[in-house]
């Protein structure tokens, strides 16, 4: 049946009116079932447990952390991995940077910088489920997730310029002296290694992050000095990549090959006329270069000559520094002791923040890297392994390999170090010397 124009308009209006009434009815039903706020018909900005009043009286920050700062410093360390003094100094730095400060609104007060820092440090120190930490600090789960990421980014931006800057020539020189005095390897400016950071399988990532040890990870490659502080890091390579690709494509490899790190020129070894370049030490996972030394191939018994065993021993002592650095990092920040749940970019933020915190605390809080926790020597110069080695979990090593091609120049540098270590001038009793043994080097 054909309808006139007026009838069609009238029918359309009726349909629209019925549809509008139906939508209004649905909205009214939702409002009827909406939970009532105890103080009246106010919008729920947060759950009752997470109100400002509860947060200021019942959260872990007020019931555990603040009393521990006054009466139980050891307990405060267990919660934050630092002293109250270091915590307050870091909180002041973050406040001054305005990177985590939030604007006060008419509806609610923002969470303070110190509470945000406490939530973040608790997550890094334990790796606990963020829902548990959020409940303890009386904040929402989504709020806690955002706090941990934002505060981690702020920590890195605030601390990195002072505690993770590439050393200049004079600083490289000081590192070289420390390696010779403490670890008996002159002209060494760092130890290098790479580790897998375990993570939950990322969404739609395929097999990119699935490594040879059958778990998902990203790779952290780093150089550290003689005091377990990281000097250069390269982070974010896929876990499935082999060790050769990880190093060759890293920023570290590029800068070392280009000579753009400000490393001092070659100089004489202590008590010797032998002139050799400054170098970094690593394991068999790395290529042999004039600036990157690794152990001689073969076993430490049988066909290996005594001179090579001595060289490998001296190099391995120095290479322990980077193993200790990773061990201390994973031992204190137990976030790295199990697969981390989160996006790969967020895991990188967590890792960078923990690394700068690691360096910051080594300089400001001496108990962080105590002698018993790291490898050290006793009065008879016997090596005592650090406590972190007996703990389970932690960062996983990338695989070693042998039989890699290297240049004649690189082999000549390694042979020169081997000859020096087996000479009277380079014996262990002469390796730990004072600064007077380094006057022949250019500054």
Automatic annotation (TrEMBL):
NAD found in the keyword field: no
GO molecular function: hydrolase activity; metal ion binding; nuclease activity
GO cellular component annotations of the record: nucleus
Pfam hit, one: DDE_Tnp_4
Coiled coil residues, start to end: none
Subcellular location: Nucleus
Residue stretches spanning the membrane: none
Protein name: DDE Tnp4 domain-containing protein
Chief site of localization: nucleus
Residue ranges of domain DDE Tnp4 in the record: 192-359
Cofactor or coenzyme needed: a divalent metal cation
PANTHER family membership: NUCLEASE HARBI1-LIKE PROTEIN (PTHR22930:SF269), PTHR22930
Originating organism: Daphnia magna
InterPro entries assigned to the protein according to its UniProt record, in alphabetical order: HARBI1-like (IPR045249), HARBI1_dom (IPR027806)
Family statement: Belongs to the HARBI1 family.
Keywords linked to the UniProt accession: Hydrolase, Metal-binding, Nuclease, Nucleus
Keyword presence, Isomerase: no
Domain of life, per lineage: Eukaryota
């Amino acid at each position: 049946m054909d309808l006139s124009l007026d009838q069609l308009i009238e029918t359309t209006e009726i349909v629209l009116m019925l549809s509008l009434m139906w939508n209004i009815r649905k909205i009214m039903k939702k409002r009827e079932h909406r939970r009532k706020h105890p103080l009246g018909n106010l919008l729920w900005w947060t759950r009752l447990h997470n109100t400002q009043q509860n947060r200021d009286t019942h959260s872990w920050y007020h019931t555990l952390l603040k009393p521990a700062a006054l009466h139980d410093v050891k307990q405060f360390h267990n919660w934050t991995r630092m002293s109250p003094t270091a915590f307050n100094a870091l909180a002041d730095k973050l406040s001054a940077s305005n990177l985590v400060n939030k604007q006060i609104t008419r509806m609610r007060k923002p969470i303070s910088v110190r509470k945000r820092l406490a939530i973040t440090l608790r997550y890094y120190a334990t790796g606990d489920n963020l829902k548990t930490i959020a409940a303890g600090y009386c904040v929402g789960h989504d709020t806690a997730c955002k706090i941990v990421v934002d505060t981690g980014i702020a920590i890195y931006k605030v601390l990195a310029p002072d505690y993770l800057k590439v050393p200049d020539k004079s600083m490289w020189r000081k590192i070289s002296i420390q390696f010779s005095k403490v670890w008996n390897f002159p002209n060494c400016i760092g130890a290098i290694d790479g580790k897998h950071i375990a993570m939950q399988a990322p969404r739609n990532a395929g097999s990119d992050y699935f490594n040879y040890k059958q778990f998902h990870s990203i790779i952290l490659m780093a150089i550290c000095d003689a005091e377990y502080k990281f000097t250069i890091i390269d982070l974010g390579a896929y876990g499935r990549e082999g060790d050769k690709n990880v190093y060759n494509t890293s920023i570290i490899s590029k800068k070392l090959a280009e000579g753009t790190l400000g490393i001092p020129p070659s100089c004489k070894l202590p008590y010797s006329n032998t002139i050799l370049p400054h170098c970094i030490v690593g394991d068999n996972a790395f290529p042999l270069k004039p600036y990157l030394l690794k152990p001689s191939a073969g076993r430490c018994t049988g066909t290996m000559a005594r001179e090579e065993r001595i060289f490998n021993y001296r190099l391995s002592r120095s290479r322990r520094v980077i193993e200790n650095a990773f061990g201390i990092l994973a031992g204190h920040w137990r976030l790295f002791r199990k697969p981390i749940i989160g996006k790969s970019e967020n895991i990188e933020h967590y890792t960078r923040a923990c690394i700068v915190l690691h360096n910051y605390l080594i300089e400001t809080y001496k108990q962080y890297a105590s002698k018993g926790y790291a490898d050290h020597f006793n009065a008879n110069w016997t090596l005592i392994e650090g406590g972190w080695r007996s703990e389970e979990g932690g960062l996983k090593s990338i695989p070693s390999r042998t039989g890699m091609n290297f240049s004649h120049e690189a082999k000549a540098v390694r042979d020169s170090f081997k000859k020096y270590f087996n000479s009277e001038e380079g014996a262990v009793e002469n390796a730990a010397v004072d600064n007077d043994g380094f006057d022949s080097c250019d500054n």
